[in-house]
Every structure is written in structure tokens, then in C-alpha cells.
Design a protein that fits this description.
By secondary structure, this protein is α+β, with helices and mostly antiparallel strands. The protein has 7 helices and 9 strands. The chain has a 9-stranded antiparallel β-sheet. The protein is elongated, with a radius of gyration of 27 Å. The two termini are 50 Å apart.
Length: 261
């Protein structure tokens, strides 16, 4: 998204210089050639400083939340172009080029919304796509170890674990994960109620196999994984894996090792 925004900034800059000739057949006039030069320069500097300060605040408070940043960019764009249009209307008497900032504002806002929408749609994926390099139809799942985390304290503690090697149960757990539809989230991995370590074997060359593990942490709404683009995902659809694990906890189908005993 950052590259698209930079490209948009260059595009708007080019339009800013060319629209006057395209619309009015004349070279763009400058406020610096009028008595409004000083106030225009200082107010522009002040608005830019405020914008930078607000941007830094948003980044620190929202952990680079793309929605918050997009709202900021839209507001900043509108304020800057409305200010520019007002200054040109006031100080460039007899010229209609004050409409140019308004045109740029509309074009810029539309492009920013399109960038955000496309970027947001690209975040949707599935669990199978995220872990496809390590877990796919050709993969042999060796074992799964489930860890329960106690999140009641300030520091999460491992509560219990269970190792599973039964093929039917392994298939059931993997299938439940595979049905999940996810959305990539901005932010950093956090501790989840459950963590699953899946040991898999994949063929990497002729007669050569590699055994490795991938880790998945999850609760009712969110999932983190060590595979693919390591990060946080919102679970938007699919089997509630938390209920699957909790049913195993209550049913006695597997033996749990509790660390506080």
C-alpha cells in the first residue's frame, strides 16, 4: 500500500502542474508572487507539522493500523487542498485556478479509497493458503501437540499439553484448520488461549524428505502462525477450532498433562 500511496503523490503533483494548461490554457500562477506569500508559507508549514505529529501519534497508538492511517491521509488531503483552494481564490484574483486543488482533492480521495479497498481485499486468505508450503495434500502429519495457556495473569503460563498421534484425530484437527477463512491483521502476534505444534514431513527432492514443525496459536476470533507471512489473522469463517479443542479437553479422548499438578 505504501508504494501505491507514493505513486499517487507523484501523480497528483504532475496533475497540479498540468491542469492549469489543460483547463485554462495558461501557466500555473503562484501565490508566492502575491502579498499572500508569507501567510501561505507559514500556514502550510504549520499544517504539515501538525500532520506529521498526528501521523506519529496514530502509528504509536494503533500499531500501524491501516484503517486509521487511511482516515488520517484522507483528512490531511482534504484539509491541505481546501486550504490551497481558499488561498488561491483569495489572492489570485481574476483566476479560476482555485478549482484545481478541489479537483485534485476529489481525485486523490477517490484513489486513496480505491487503494484501501484493494489492499483490504488482498488481506483475505485461507489457512490452507497461509501454510501451503509446510502443510498441503502431499504432507504427512506426524503428530500434533496441543498446549493450553493460562491468560489470567500478567504473564501467560502454559497450563497443560497433550500429544496426539492417532491418524483419525490428526486428520480431524487439520481438516478443521483447513476450513478456516482468514483476514490478515495489522499488529503483532499475541498469546492465544491455545497453541498447536504440528510436526510434518514433506518431500523436498527425489528420495529426500524434510521433517519440521509449524506453530498455530488461536482463540475464538484470532489466529497466529509461524508459517507463511508470520502474523496475526482474524478468523472470518470456518470451524471454531476452540470448540474442537475444548471438546477434546472435556471428552477424555486424549491424555492431558497438567503442569500445576
Amino acid at each position: 500500500m505504501q508504494v501505491a500511496i507514493v505513486c499517487l503523490a507523484f501523480f497528483l503533483a504532475i496533475m497540479n502542474f498540468q491542469l492549469s494548461r489543460w483547463l485554462f490554457g495558461e501557466k500555473r500562477k503562484k501565490i508566492s508572487e502575491t502579498d499572500g506569500e508569507t501567510i501561505h508559507r507559514w500556514l502550510t508549514f504549520l499544517l504539515v507539522c501538525i500532520g506529521i505529529g498526528v501521523y506519529i501519534f496514530i502509528v504509536r497508538m494503533d500499531a500501524v493500523d491501516s484503517k486509521a492511517i487511511m482516515v488520517f491521509l484522507l483528512c490531511f488531503l482534504v484539509v491541505m487542498y481546501v486550504f490551497q483552494a481558499f488561498m488561491e481564490w483569495k489572492y489570485l484574483q481574476g483566476s479560476k485556478q482555485y478549482v484545481i486543488p478541489l479537483i485534485l482533492m476529489v481525485v486523490g480521495a477517490a484513489c486513496l479509497l480505491a487503494i484501501y479497498f484493494i489492499n483490504d481485499q488482498m488481506k483475505y486468505t485461507t489457512f490452507s493458503e497461509v501454510v501451503s508450503d509446510q502443510l498441503n495434500e502431499e504432507t504427512t502429519v506426524r503428530s500434533i501437540t496441543i498446549y493450553q495457556n493460562d491468560l489470567t495473569g500478567d504473564i501467560p503460563e502454559r497450563k497443560a499439553s497433550a500429544a496426539i498421534k492417532d491418524e483419525e484425530m490428526l486428520d480431524r484437527i487439520v481438516e478443521d484448520f483447513s476450513d478456516m477463512e482468514l483476514k490478515k491483521m495489522d499488529g503483532f502476534p499475541e498469546y492465544r488461549k491455545y497453541r498447536v505444534r504440528i510436526v510434518v514431513t514433506n518431500q523436498v527432492a527425489t528420495d529426500h524428505y524434510s521433517t519440521e514443525s509449524l506453530t498455530v496459536g488461536f482463540n475464538e476470533n484470532y489466529l497466529t502462525t509461524s508459517a507463511g507471512s508470520n502474523g496475526v489473522y482474524e478468523i472470518v469463517d470456518g470451524t471454531d477450532q476452540t470448540k474442537t479443542i475444548e471438546s477434546l479437553v472435556k471428552s477424555g479422548e486424549i491424555d492431558w498433562e497438567y503442569y500445576d499438578e
